[in-house]
Fold each of these.
Amino acid sequence: MSLADKLKDLVSLDGHHFETGNRRAKVISICSQKGGVGKTTSAVNLGSALAYFHHKKVLVVDLDPQGHVEKAVGSLVQGGVEYTPLSRVLTSKKAEILEAVLQTELENFHLTAGDKELIAAESSLANRIGREFILKLSMETARTHYDFILCDCPPSLGNLTLNALCASDYAILPCEMSALAFEGVSDILETFREIHDRLNDKLQLLGVLFTRVDGRNTTMNELIVDNMKKFVDGKLFRTQITVNTDLNKAQLEGLPIFHYAPSSSGAENYQALAVEVLHRVKEMQARQSSVKNQKLARSA
């Protein structure tokens, strides 16, 4: 029996057993080595767009010790609800990420709470056998209860980001529209390729997402896009997140952009991104299925 199979038979930390659901979540890591590029903004608003407009059941996992996910949608989270901190889930021998989940007022949109103890948890993971797969194992049952699980990674390439990428099917790399964008993407791509080759051959780059785009810098923007397209073999999202103060204001109010300013450019951008993500996932799954069938036909 594999470790994943054994996990399904475990009892959760508070003594409750989690039944297996009938969904098959796609896990997407949203990661960058640099801070301030819109990781949390993208995780929260992409996730809420998938739930609100496309009726997908979504879980956002906040792996950043700063806990910005919960702050960004705090007005939708009911206070006084008991949960297990994510740090405890990751450091326990019998762990289910479902223990750490909080529901929100937005139907089908859930998250894990902010947890400053993730700093200590990341250090302790270094001493665990199979440390790269702890998050993946804790998600086995959760994957059967959601359509999408989005991991908001910390701005580093440490054990938490490594765990997220080993648990993921896809990765989105947000970066600012600047000459320094290549620096932020370069290192994470190198780590990405190593993980794909050594630890998780299912991991695919869903795309690079340009954020905080100033539409007035047309010539420079086009130059950066053309060079980045070559750098990542064309895997750029057509959708770009433009500079929009409503996105910052929405976070201060603890609301997704669709609740705070539904007619803003930020809302339009993230609605378009959700459509593009759904299309791209479907397209990549179809391509994978075709390749698999071709291999089976050749071996028959």
Amino acid sequence: MSFFPIFAVAAPQAVAATAARPALWEVTDRDTTIYLFGTIHLLPPDYAWETPVLRKAVDTSNMLYVETIVDQKNPTELIAALKNLGYSNGLPPIADRIDPARRPLLEAAIAKSGVPRPWFDRMETWAAAFTLLGVQYGTLGLEGESGVEQTLRDQFGAEGKPVGQLETNTQQLGFFDQLPETAQRALLEGAISNEQEAKDEFSEMLRGWASGDVDAIARTFNRDLADSPALREVLLRQRNANWSRWIEGRMGQPGTIMLAVGAGHLAGDDSVLAHLKHDGYRVRRIQ
């Protein structure tokens, strides 16, 4: 699920054959410009998505903000946050927290993870889902280094431009930790989808993102969250409202920055863009 920060596929080359033009917006006033770019956290290696319009936005921005900063080479902060929030004593065995019919998928994913099997029984359900999503992403050939945020961070860093975050690793994982158990189990179900289901879902998401089809992205997110109002409220609505308030506060400072967050947060009726428009800000799509 694209909410995870570590944020392939059925024929990615078929999608890449047509030049990708993911959606890009700007919010402006007299002395401030904020570019809003919807991302996919992980991508297959060498997937081309940059355009001249996006390149210009990067070049003219003096700072980048992302959801959270994960240091791929030294993820100490993420590991510490996961250890602090993601483990508890006295939990039901992980196999008892999933539909019995899907236990073979669960056990196969655990075996691929390389994590000792007893550890999963002490994991909060969301943390088990987080861990097993990493297995799913690896199976699909996705890499953090190829993701949009990491690429942008590398570009800004190479030019000596600062990179900030909207949420710390602990804050972001805290959203998952506060989910009711039913919602956490929905995450776990999604994390152990069979390979073909995962390929189909990612391919659909990638097509919508690469073509700039915001309605398709919104449909994907609505479908993913339709069975769990708690997931929608905590992971989408609350965070979108928080981020829109942050943007409105940042509009009071002059300058040009880029904000890159998961594409689902910039699509649909509850999106960051919808909040900004409701509050009277001028939002213009430029790609």
Amino acid sequence: MMQLPTGPGVRIDTGVYVGFEISTFYDSLISKLIVWGETRPQAIVRMRRALEEYRIVGVRTNIPFHQSMMSTYPFITGKYDTRFVEDQFSMMDATENRELYLDIAALLASLVANEKIERRAQVYPDSGLKSNWKWANRHEKSGR
């Protein structure tokens, strides 16, 4: 799945499209996101919005890195040099963040599973059915 950002000052250059199969030997540059603004702050705001909208499922991307980079003081103020990435980011941070994201994903999965269990265990109001299980089943099938 791929969802491209749109809007004023946003351009995508890519040869990838929905249904396109990216092999395991893919070129890491599968698309370019280009954003323009009349001022630096306007361009940064547009880029942040575009990065939030951008979705590519199936391969790892560097979108999270760019989102982090756009939030650093040196980048926002334009006071950075060729050592910017080395000075601001480390592989250790990326590894720690990956572990944190896995923990967050596990927590969310547990909450969703728990909510389903709680919903099944609810006592439903008298609906004219003799069995709470029948009411729950009909309620679940109706999509409510």
